[in-house]
Specification:
The chain is α+β, with helices and mostly antiparallel strands. Helices cover 29% and strands 19% of the residues. The structure holds ligand LR7 and manganese (II) ion.
């Protein structure tokens, strides 16, 4: 005891005190560290749990929907359409709509509307930016008009009454109060000298620097080295400590636990964007802004318009690696995705694409995709004729090791071109894109995440609008989904409010989509081939989006629009390339193939909406369908009725145009079929012999018997129904026509109508008379 006391005297006491104090301090420190680690971990855990719960919720919501038959509130998709060069389908003309039209198309006729496969309908909510493309001269005016256009997130109000468009985008909104840059001024600052300067200044900071001057390959070696270095940098950063694996663990973005190696299986979506600080902030179109082209350049703009059916002159002056605004809903950047997402091959098919837009498409993928997920970019050249797409393109793309070019030996069309790309793709997932797009920040991971969660999910990005005139990047309305109207016309329509409320949908939730637009989507590669890919019998352009959509839904998959993934697309008024055969015939034929294989009894609706002429096998050869029909059997796909009931229930469909009793106004009696002959009886709804259908094939039909005019005479006859037989067809309108309620023989050269004989009570074919009540017939129920 004494000894201890001696030690604690004088400096010994001080030492002992210091010792005890440091032990206590150490203990506190450790406790604090533990606490903070717990904190960090629990924060991460919490995020993960929330995310997984969200995923579960979403999954169960989807399963619920499927099980419950997707009780989508009925939506009035008020779609009217302006046919190519024709009038509005909706007589009120309230709704705007545009049909694609090719150069060689004949003008449409009244009963002869033939919208195209991917023709796009738009509701009046939509403001299209596609506009009178044929006339490049309109450009200056319309752009100048927009000069005073306000402002943030306001829909652009451009004239929509286009009769000649190929696509209508969903309604669009300008991103920022456009402090527009005048082309003439900016052009001076983006001359060649300036570009070189910029390139030199940018150094290794920017990954994919390229010349903005079109049609001149950038310095290959410098760029290739830069790209490699950048990829290495991203990889090392992501690997954190280093082992190189195919699917590295990814670190949270700066500021988020930056020291903790992520052992978790999820991470925040990478906001990777090499164009975040663009090398020339004053460049034309930078940040996706609109550009006014000076009036004195009108002639030049017009001259170059037809190269791509958009403002090619302007596009060529905008940096191919420009920055665009991040248009994702706010929550998207916080979303978690799995670390081990599948890799993807991005496939661009193109024919005679404009140089600057093709490059901008490729750069947007390189600059805004996590390198470890981007297996490769495959460019499929569908036998382009333009010189710059040959050696010059090879040379330019040689600087990017991930880019491969495949050249087709003859023109195959986009469908078979995509198949050629898919056949050589090495990634787990195929991502198809049009060759005039710009991928936005964080576009890829949300798509791959959906495929990762379920390989039968086919996610599409939100397709935003790059103005064909001023090249500005515009965001579209939320909650838009792809739908179709008869005869298989693609369109956009808003998810109904009640549905959104009922399902607690937020603007970033995936949207179930009955039909995809066609050009932009990701799909698990194996699943794509299991589905039999595309029908290789589809030619050039059109209809393939219907085919793949029906196939996916009916054979066990799902199509979704992913609001957190956004890609801009230049909507053009016309296809800028030639069709090897007549454009209209090509698209019609494609659609008929799709209808024959996938629509079951509903194919009558397709043909009945202006395509009856396709039933004439002598005039239209839609090719052999055996393999496609076999495939559908083999995959045990569900019926088209199932698709309508479960995926698109708000599409109200009736298999007949009218049905029930057929009442003659003059005779005040009903048509009856007794022992294979027609007579008149007192109307009685309970009599099956008095029940007839007026079909989409325009037949007056009971069971398998159809009413037909007889030869050239004035008689009529009953015949076994045959959809390909034009003689069984009758025009019939219940209202709004001089000959309303008349059955007009379709095949007769002059107007011959079905008439009840006053005395004999038999039937005759007589010249049509608008006010003759014995020629007027009414059905019990009308569906169309
Ligand atoms: O013969 C051809 N060979 C090709 O390689 C014809 C076209 N192509 C290429 C072409 O260069 C382009 O990159 O295929 C791509 C699509 O052709 P576009 O841009 O002329 O088509 P689009 O944008 O007018 O049409 C839409 O509908 C098409 C129907 O077949 C395709 O599905 C397109 O991919 C599709 N585009 C989109 O979905 C983008 C959004 C449009 C909307 C709505
Ligand atoms: Mn396109």
């Amino acid at each position: 005891m004494m000894k201890v006391r001696r030690y604690l005297r004088g400096s010994g006491r001080v030492l002992a005190f210091v010792f005890v104090a440091s032990v206590i301090w150490l203990l506190f420190d450790m406790a604090a560290l533990r606490l903070s680690m717990n904190d960090a971990n629990s924060q991460l855990l919490k995020e993960r749990v929330i995310r997984e719960r969200e995923m579960l919720k979403q999954q169960s919501r989807v399963t619920q929907l499927v099980n419950l038959g997707f009780k989508h509130p009925v939506q009035r998709v008020d779609l009217a359409a302006t046919h190519a060069g024709g009038g509005a389908l909706n007589p009120a003309g309230k709704l705007a709509s545009v049909y694609r039209r090719g150069g060689r198309q004949r003008p449409p006729m009244l009963e002869d509307r033939k919208p195209q496969g991917n023709d796009i309908l738009a509701s009046d909510r939509f403001r299209s930016v596609a506009s009178k493309h044929n006339d490049g001269g309109a450009l200056h005016n319309s752009v100048t008009q927009k000069q005073g256009a306000p402002a943030h997130k306001k829909a652009v109000n451009l004239d929509l009454n286009i009769a000649n468009g190929t696509q209508v985008p969903p309604s669009v909104q300008k991103i920022k109060p456009t402090h527009k840059i005048r082309a003439d001024r900016a052009r001076d600052s983006v001359g060649n000298e300036k570009v070189k300067d910029d390139l030199a200044k940018a150094g290794t900071k920017q990954a994919h620097l390229v010349k903005t001057t079109p049609r001149q390959p950038a310095n290959k070696d410098v760029n290739r080295k830069e790209v490699k270095e950048e990829e290495k940098r991203v990889r090392t950063k992501d690997l954190d400590g280093g082992e190189e694996t195919a699917k590295p663990a990814v670190r949270l973005q700066a500021g988020e636990n930056s020291t903790a190696l992520r052992k978790q299986s999820v991470h925040k979506v990478l906001s990777l964007d090499m164009t975040h600080s663009p090398r020339d902030v004053n460049a034309l179109g930078q940040f996706g802004q609109a550009v006014i082209v000076n009036g004195d350049k009108d002639a030049e703009v017009r001259r170059r318009w037809n190269e791509g059916h958009f403002n090619v002159y302007l596009s060529d002056q905008i940096p191919v690696d420009r920055a665009i605004p991040d248009t994702r809903p706010d929550t998207c950047a916080q979303n978690l995705v799995h670390d081990n997402l599948p890799s993807t091959s991005v496939i661009f098919c193109f024919v005679d694409e404009v140089w600057s837009t093709l490059l901008r498409s490729v750069h947007s993928v390189l600059n805004r995709s996590p390198p470890h997920l981007l297996k490769e970019i495959i460019l499929v050249d569908d036998f382009s004729t333009r010189d710059y797409l040959k050696g010059q393109l090879d040379e330019y793309m040689a600087q990017f090791p991930k880019v491969r070019i495949i050249r087709l030996k003859e023109r195959q069309g986009l469908i078979r071109a995509r198949l050629a790309g898919a056949a050589v793709a090495k990634g787990d997932v195929l991502t198809f894109l049009d060759s005039h797009i710009e991928c936005n920040v964080g576009w890829l991971e949300p798509l791959l995440e959906r495929v990762y969660l379920d390989r039968k999910k086919v996610p599409c990005p939100v397709i935003e609008v790059i103005s064909d005139k001023d090249m500005s990047y515009m965001l579209v309305d939320n909650f838009q989904r792809g739908i179709f109207k008869w005869p298989l016309v693609f369109g956009w329509s808003a998810v109904p409010d009640e549905y959104i409320k009922k399902n607690n949908m937020t603007i970033s939730d995936p949207i179930r989509c009955p039909v995809m637009a066609g050009g932009l989507f990701s799909i698990d590669k194996k699943y794509f081939f299991e589905l039999g890919a595309y029908d290789p019998g589809l030619d050039v352009w059109g209809g393939e989006n219907m085919e793949i959509s029906f196939k996916i839904w009916m054979c066990g998959g799902e199509i979704e629009i992913i609001p957190c993934s956004r890609v801009g697309h230049i909507f053009r008024g016309q296809n800028p390339y030639k069709f090897p055969k007549d454009r209209q015939k090509t698209v019609e034929r494609n659609l008929a193939r799709v209808a024959e294989v996938w629509l079951d009894e509903y194919k009558d609706l397709f043909y009945g909406h202006g395509y009856l002429h396709l039933l004439d096998k002598k005039a239209t050869d839609i090719g052999n369908l055996t393999e496609q029909i076999e495939l559908r059997k083999k995959l045990k796909c569900k019926s088209f009725k199932w698709y309508l009931d479960n995926v698109y229930p708000d599409m109200k469909v009736s298999l007949v145009k009218a049905e029930g009793l057929v009442f003659n106004r003059g005779l005040r009696k009903c048509l009856a079929l007794q022992k294979d002959s027609l007579s008149f009886e007192t109307c009685d709804l309970s009599e099956q012999s008095q029940h007839f259908n007026f079909t989409w094939m325009k037949q007056i039909r009971q069971r398998d018997l159809c009413v037909a005019p007889q030869g050239k005479g004035s008689g009529f006859t009953l015949q076994l129904c045959d959809n390909t037989e034009p003689k069984l067809r009758w025009f019939y309108k219940s209202s709004s026509s001089a000959l309303a309620e008349h059955f007009i023989a379709d095949f007769a050269s002059q107007h011959m109508c079905l008439e009840a004989e006053r005395q004999s009570g038999s039937l005759r074919l007589n010249p049509c008379e608008p006010s003759n009540t014995f020629q007027k017939w009414q059905f019990t129920r009308y569906h169309a």
